[in-house]
Amino acid sequence: VKNVILVGASGNLGPIIVKTFARHAPHFNFSILTRHDSNSTSTFPANIPVLRADYSSLDSLTAAFKDQDAVVSLVGPAFLAKQTILVDAAIAAGVKLFLPSEYGSDTADERLREVVPMFEVKKNIVDYLKQREDKISWSAVIVGGFFDWGITSTFLGFNASTKTATLVDNGTVPFTTTNTTTIARALIAILSNPSVARNQYVYISSFTPTGADILAAAERITGAQWTVKHVSSDDLVKDGKEKVAKGDRMGVVSLLLAGLLGKEGLGDNRKKGSEEWNQRLGLEGEDFEGSVR
């Protein structure tokens, strides 16, 4: 794999991947694909080629993918289901490897899909790729939650400015999380040696802490006792499903948290080989407290 194109690189993860590729993957010729009507190129480094295509046109996408060896899809929720046209265009252009937009909880796990029905869309794309393995290879990267972003955005329930924490199911359940730069390094490792992860789900992690572990680290770092609120995953599921039924997208956040942090332990990817995958991809251990900081 020499020529790599990133699709949908302007979300939470995209800019980190672009920056890490630029710094640590000089052996790739990589470019970025944006929609023909998008004006978001300003966020990308000036030396990286930005191509444009009509995402609803097979011909336009096929032309954009010409001479590419790998397509890395980072598209957001609105475009997940439409990745089939990206796969079709990649095959038509002779691309060898397609990485669908995963980078979250394990969408291959039926129990998680019951908690978070929106995950069906991601699984459907992998199924679509599985049916075309004679034409193109794929790798689906599962990371649990984003750790660094999950802390700074308060998504994981920790707010440093107010020193408050929300623990799900008492914060006793380990769950897999990965720093965004580590996700980028894993992608570089896979693209550098595609056979290691060909036609497989890949489980990576930075840490598999409990909520209580994060709280203890936060209290040590700040030298203060935090205010703790408790919520049950059952209540999150109930609240999430009610909100989603009313068309409130915040309901999805409740469902994601229930799936990742809940008492069933569905968010712990060690049982799925995350530690072995880290070794296989050469991802070294990271500093937990430094990442909380």
TrEMBL record:
Alphabetical list of InterPro entries matching this protein: NAD(P)-bd_dom_sf, NmrA-like, NmrA/Isoflavone_reductase-like, PCBER-like
Domain of life: Eukaryota
Pfam family, one: NmrA
Domain (NmrA-like) ranges: 2-237
Keyword terms: NADP, Oxidoreductase
GO MF annotations, alphabetized: oxidoreductase activity
The name this protein goes by in its record: NAD(P)-binding protein
Organism: Westerdykella ornata
The organism's taxonomic lineage, starting at the top: Eukaryota, Fungi, Dikarya, Ascomycota, Pezizomycotina
